[in-house]
Amino acid sequence: MKSPIMFPATMTEMFTTMGSTLASFMFVWAIIRQYCPYELRRFFEKYSQKITGYFYPYIRISFHEFAGDRLKRSEAYSAVEAYLSANSSKSAKKLKAEMGRDSRKLVLSMDEHERVTDDFRGVKVWWLLSKSVSAARQNSYYPEQEKRFYKLTFHKKHRDIITEKYLEHVVSEGKEIRVRNRQRKLYTNSPGYKWPSYKQTMWSHIVFEHPASFETLAMDPDKKEEIIEDLMTFSKSKDYYAKIGKAWKRGYLLYGPPGTGKSTMIAAMANLLNYDIYDLELTAVKDNTELRKLLIETTSKSIIVIEDIDCSLDLTGQRKKKSEKSSDDENDKSKEIAKKEAKEEIGSKVTLSGLLNFIDGLWSACGGERLIVFTTNYAEKLDPALIRRGRMDKHIELSYCTFEAFKVLAKNYLSLEMHPMFDTIQTLIGETKITPADVAENLMPKSSLDDAEKCLSSLIQALEEAKEEAAKEEAAKKEKAAKKEKEAKEEAAKKEKEAKEEAAEKEEAVKEEAAKKENAARKKAGIKENGPTKEDAFQSQVDKETENVS
């Protein structure tokens, strides 16, 4: 019978032997690394890997952090890092927390030398984060920076599904995760001559933190739902746009009086779709070439905005032929101005043709998933070619505040859904034109003592004043129209009278002329019938004698 004391003794001997073996191996390996030439070690490693490859059933794929140019991080590495941070960080035991350059929150990812598993359609794979340093530079005075890389390992029988499906899934999922985690930005352009030489982009930006959403937007609920559905359908239609052969972009024209929420609508669109915003200032763009460069530098998942486009440039008159006026004085004056303002802002030479090409020309197809938004207070002033369907695909009118929009504002500002004063407000809003901005200003408490009833009373007073003002303006308009009509009638009567007098004068003149012609004709007819008179015969004789004498 075996003694119970033998088991732990056997285990102790086994661990002792294993430890001695590992120590001996590490010692021999250290000696080899120290004294064996690097080239010889590389030779043995190269052929040992080839020999092992014949029997080793697994395939490895490496994703290096920097490929080629070390100044730019590999897109594939970043996508894998984002994918693993979301899908494998729960199973990893060693994690690192980082705040990415363009990230809005803390990101957890695998730490170095950590190994995690992933499953894709029943196929098991292993991911390992490792690093390497060139041996030739280890003892250098300027050691080379460590090179990090992810290593993917999988069985060779799954080669097709991994290389064709899984890697595509990892990259696309990783990019989506990066987009969701990134800090969204608000970009703007500046005049070309102000760009610093060290800047590699024509845009400058700040973090976009506008809190607007469609839930807080003062608008009719049905119209709001229609816009949301349109935007969400666009964001999911990449394959559809490719199928119909059209660039993945869409144009929106927002028009209406000032204070109706056009800029707020743009912010809500960006927040809904998680897009960046490029606020394009056309007056700062030198010419069409510069406009094209700005377009090229915009990214996907973005909204390109041109606000108050009717005021930005004289785009409507550029299709008409303009008379050319030039003089020596004007040329001299322009030369002087050019010399004085050589380093100052140069006027924009962007044309309507250049802007149309910017919207839907060949260059507009670079990138994808873009919205182009124009805002204006006067849509009728814009050239029809600029806002036709295909360029501005959806026209959205943002008009004066309705009762449905008021209820949204009341809920936002006062947390009210019903109140006895709502009936009065509904009646007044139906009779008065007031913008959502004015309604919001009256609903906002101005002090801690202001309650909902006081704010609603303030709004009712503002509506009544607006109604009275509108009535006065209407009365003044009618009076002006009546006065204008009266003046027009008087002017018409005066012109009619003058026309009648002129016609009478002409008629009288015609009659006098006709009488003269008639008298002359009668006189001539009388001479032919009766022959010459004595006076005519005497005058004829005098004329003959005078001629003979001369």
Automatic annotation (TrEMBL):
Residues 471-550 are annotated as: Disordered. One of its GO terms (biological process) is response to stress. Keywords: ATP-binding, Hydrolase, Magnesium, Nucleotide-binding. Residues 471-521, 531-550 have a biased composition (Basic and acidic residues). It comes from the Eukaryota. Pfam families: AAA, AAA_assoc, AAA_lid_At3g28540. GO terms for molecular function: ATP binding; ATP hydrolysis activity. Gene3D superfamilies: 6.10.280.40, P-loop containing nucleotide triphosphate hydrolases (3.40.50.300). SUPFAM superfamilies: P-loop containing nucleoside triphosphate hydrolases. Belongs to the AAA ATPase family. BCS1 subfamily. This is Aaa-atpase asd. It comes from Quercus suber (Cork oak).
